[in-house]
Amino acid sequence: MAETDQERTEDPTEKRKQQAREKGQVARSKEMGTAFVLVSAAVAFMWFGGALFDGLRSVFQQFFVLDRAQAFDTSKMFEAFAIAFGEIIWPVLIIFAFITVFTFFGNSWLGGINFAWKAMAPKFSRMNPLNGFKRMFGVQALVELVKGIAKFLVVAVSAFLLLAWQHDNILQISMGQMPNMMANALDILLWMFLLMCCSIFLIVVIDAPFQLWKHQKDLKMTKQEVKDEHKDSEGSPEVKGRIRRLQMEMANRRMMQEVPKADVVVTNPTHYAVAIKYDDKGGKAPVLLAKGTDETAAKIREIALEYDIPLVQSPALARSVYHTTELEQEIPQGLFVAVAQVLAYVYQLKMHRKGKAKRPNKPASDLPIPDDLKY
């Protein structure tokens, strides 16, 4: 079938992924969370079950040695409950904390930590019976059914294999003596429980990649959606053009404010104009303050005349400076000789205006420009 724009064939953009996270749509594997809960519970009871067992034994001993007077004494009963609570509270808290940490880790490993307030908002569409029937008989429901059957088979097979493995040990328990018989039974029970819980990771190995693939598939976009999002993020061509025009106008205004600081303006004479400043005290090369063509060049010349800045016609130099030098940058070394002749003329012109020198001749229009800098 020919691909249409309505087919979701494009990978989701970063914006689409972020929007999905804000809605609580992240890859999650319930089986991974379940496996971590069960395994952590088994490990917690193996590590800290001894302390819990000692606490319970102490509680039972205290309650079994109460005489009739203590049993009917309210203060003694509350005292006994307080002692019992103190005996078992710390083992219970440690086991609970251990399971909580691994439960949090197991549920956030796939998809990361994500708090989505939008996901907590009530959705009346979920109360629609038709949508409920669709979820009950949809593809997702079929997948969950297959996973449920697979979990049952995995646990059942694991239980059978573990019982076959520990068959002789289980039979020998009845021939033991207390309390060793109880300790052996608990040890076998805990190890079987742990191994049965670990068997669920066989489902996790399949479910986790499937959830990642499904999440990626659900977020896929049509080509039109990608185009619309790109247009929204980048802006329409009209808006971008207007922004560029405003930026250029602001840059031109700032540039024009620098023209009065120039020592000379070299012109084409009409198509190009560059404003150059030289600080003889700084010991640096001449700097380009402003440049432009056509209307901008005319504006530079207008400001130069307004502030009595000398205008020097040198088409080759004006074009070379315009194309090779950016604003606030020094003139290339290859143009030093030509610019130096122009600045010497400007200096002599200033001295002439002060009555200290005769009027200088204008520099030749064909100033020496290296071939690699000619434009």
Q: Would you kindly provide a written description of the structure presented here, covering whatever features stand out?
A:
It is a single chain. By secondary structure, the protein is mainly alpha-helical. The chain contains 15 helices and four strands. The chain has a four-stranded mixed beta sheet with strand order 3-2-1-4, sandwiched between helices. 17% of the residues are buried.
Number of helical segments with 4 or more residues: 15
Spans of at least 5 consecutive residues whose pLDDT stays below 50 are 1-5
- The backbone outline, from C-alpha atoms, is elongated
Q: Report the helical percentage.
A: 55-70%
Oligomer: single chain
Alpha carbon gyration radius = 43 Å
Major beta sheet, specifics?
Answer: 4 strands, mixed
H and E string: HHHHHHHHHHHHEEEHEHH
Q: Could you name the key traits of this structure?
A:
mainly alpha; name from scop; 2 domains; 15 helices
Describe how the helices and strands are arranged:
Blueprint: H1 14-22, H2 30-64, H3 68-71, H4 74-108, H5 117-120, H6 129-136, H7 139-165, H8 167-173, H9 180-198, H10 201-219, H11 223-234, H12 237-258, E1 264-267, E2 272-277, E3 287-293, H13 295-306, E4 311-313, H14 315-324, H15 336-353
Parallel strand pairs: 1-4
Antiparallel strand pairs: 1-2, 2-3
Helix pairs in contact: 2-4, 2-9, 7-9
